[in-house]
């Protein structure tokens, strides 16, 4: 009973942390908010029940947003589910084959560089969303246009009369919902069209219109048109109140264009080919985008974003200890939502359906036959590798944070695979174990897997019964939360820590970050891994030697070895030993040596025998050897001493 009470209370805290993160990560990924929430639900109810790390909490992760965004841009949202399903299947097989430990075999410099690169991309893209704008494309483009975004948001927010703000705010809510429905219809149609990556969907000119096989989509489009017609009266009222201002005129023109394009899309679905219907749907979505652009206000959105970030910082720094259990992002989102509601601020709001399962997309035969399998395979492997590495590294951190349980890495990998297979089946986002939610679980007193399972239940209950509350949340506040998360992922302290292990680690980190930002995540990770491998090869093949002869005629010399003395460098070491005169006592300095192998030790011992047959001696400071190979050196020393003792006994007898 005691543990149930602790798990019950911890589950509520984890739920409060997970709710805004699930929505924000979905927005950052370019996916419907429902896709992130469904992933959180599956991560709690399913993965939490079978996980190999009981106190780890799974759900959509910031580390996968870049991958998911690229998948959606490359092969379309309708194919995301297949990519996630295949990635999950790879994880299931890897778990069954007991490969869990291998996914952890990545250099810390690459991991930190990957997280920082993702952080830069999230911060850059969500900075634009925070001012109710759209990301500009690549990571480099988003970073380069941040000054432009700042310029858009610098003007002082101007509050129109309450009635005007109410009308514009209502219109933003209504048009945002229509926009979501139009995108959903377009995606449903796209599932039935052959798709070539980077090209427009196309079908034969005599293809059968989708209205024959999917009349429900025609009904949805018809309802959308009727709803938009009803909004024209509100737009006319807005123009009347504002006395025909230029802004209201632009809004009216944009509304008329959206209505025209929506009606054209409806006609295309009823009478045209699938190819024509898809083209008209795209035109309708662009018209809705233009209407939203005329309704929203960059200055007010930016102000809400700043309030969100400042609230997070202030709450973390000065909240009473008794209230620290309430997560700072949740406090910030609630405050921004209250301000937006009380002051009726005309900004973009979260788009979510009344029924969460409207956005569920089960794979069908048309999707499978039209799937770009080469692109899907690449996406699936990337999801599997990155999600597995992030999950298992998170599990290691969870083990270090508590003593209640220990991770079974293969079981955890299998559980994550099952979760991602289910997410793929319903078209949701991929999942990983998430350190923010997991640490919140532990700090809140979670003792068993029940807390993770219950958090999934609370998510399901909330979005099923209270989804209307989510529509009150400004999109800019969620984006601001992600801007802060992106900043935290960059983690400048990690660079300082890596520097302790040499500039080589810092260089790998920088190369990984730069490649991710200017190309893509997979390329960046591969570059980091390749550089780590080259560094290992260099480390185990690089040896510096320096021979210093004694001064003032002293018959002494010092051979300093730095790096790794392996069989690869035997010729170099032998050449240096040959430079030592026969009558000189040689001291070998191991103080700067990282490693020495059996071959090099044999060379030194054999050279010593020849050298001592003359007038010289070999002096080795065995105590200066690193503990890694000190035992080997001592064995060699003992063997040499026993041979010397044997010679002395033989001579004395």
From TrEMBL:
It is a multi-pass membrane protein. Residues 4-154, 283-512 form the SLC26A/SulP transporter domain. InterPro entries: SLC26A/SulP_dom (IPR011547), SLC26A/SulP_fam (IPR001902), STAS_dom_sf (IPR036513). Keywords: Membrane, Transmembrane, Transmembrane helix. Its main location: membrane. It holds the Pfam family Sulfate_transp. The chain crosses the membrane at residues 34-55, 67-90, 102-124, 300-318, 330-352, 373-398, 418-436, 457-487, 507-534. It is found in: Membrane. One of its GO terms (biological process) is transmembrane transport. GO terms for cellular component: membrane. PANTHER family: SULFATE TRANSPORTER. This is Bicarbonate transporter BicA.
